[in-house]
Amino acid sequence: MDAAAAVSVPSDEQLAALEQLCVEFAVIAGRFIRDERPDRLGVAQTKSTDTDVVTVMDRRSEELLHRLIIEARPDDGILGEEGADVTGTSGLTWVIDPIDGTVNYLYEIPAYAVSVAVVVGDPSREGAWRPVAGAISDPSLRLVHHARHGAGAWTRPEEEGDATPPRRLTVSSEHRLGRSLLATGFGYAADVRARQAEVLTRVLPLVRDIRRIGSAALDLVRVADGSVDAYAESGINAWDLAAGWIVVEEAGGVVVGRDGGAPGKALTVAAGPALATQVAPLFTTEPA
Ligand code: IPD
């Protein structure tokens, strides 16, 4: 976290403009993947394993986000899940997941998201970056969740003209592990999954229950709005995490990694502060 802390955070005026762009871009890409989904969507490619899929819409959504970002912010960097990265000169990088919850999207399960964040530091190095603004669109519910540093976390309808007022997000106050609903997720590699299942055999008897929603970004939103008490997963990437991290923090929660360090691949835990310190050790025996 030191390297990230050394980079200065933009002024609140700049942050407000960046947050607004995050919302705009996440909503545009969210509508695109919902409304333009081809009738017979198949797997276009696999990545780390045969179960780690990419659809044509992941690629198109990332291309769309690239175009929007480059047009509005030509000096910023871009790091995206599908890999067409850009090195910037401004010190700010857009970290984007064009579809988080791709397997849900493929199966038409309505729990997928577009995650768009602006970060300071180097998001390709764990512990060397942190988000300063972000938005997660939930196209199935036609909602967008967003935050910027120091200004709270909010949910609003994706439709500009909708008069429903924005709702401020607050993490759950549950601090008893045994009463906690814990969201988690699994990687795509069989050996990693076997270890994750083994960790769950120890965790499941200790908590109220477990949820596997299938989108890390939406898991983090659920922590922020208190509809789950905590989230823990190992193996997630910067693009799964970046926007949700600032949303949870601005909702009063903490997002930590192994041994209380920065969140990332080794471990990401999000919860209210008292619960996070109980959940993290349960997952720290799991190899990265
Ligand atoms: C995945 C989802 C899932 C999580 C995986 C991620 P993707 O992202 O967020 O919930 O458990 O670790 O890789 O592949 O759908 O963008």
UniProtKB/TrEMBL annotation:
In short, the EC number is 3.1.3.25
Membrane-crossing ranges are none
Coiled-coil region(s):
none
Q: Which reaction does it catalyse?
A: a myo-inositol phosphate + H2O = myo-inositol + phosphate
Superkingdom of the organism of origin = Bacteria
What PROSITE patterns does the database record attribute to this sequence?
IMP_1, IMP_2
Cofactor list: Mg(2+)
Q: Which keywords annotate this record?
A: Hydrolase, Magnesium, Metal-binding
> PANTHER family per the record?
INOSITOL MONOPHOSPHATASE, INOSITOL-1-MONOPHOSPHATASE-RELATED
Name listed for the protein in its UniProt record: inositol-phosphate phosphatase
Q: Which organism is it from?
A: Humibacillus xanthopallidus
Tell me the organism's taxonomic lineage. Bacteria, Bacillati, Actinomycetota, Actinomycetes, Micrococcales
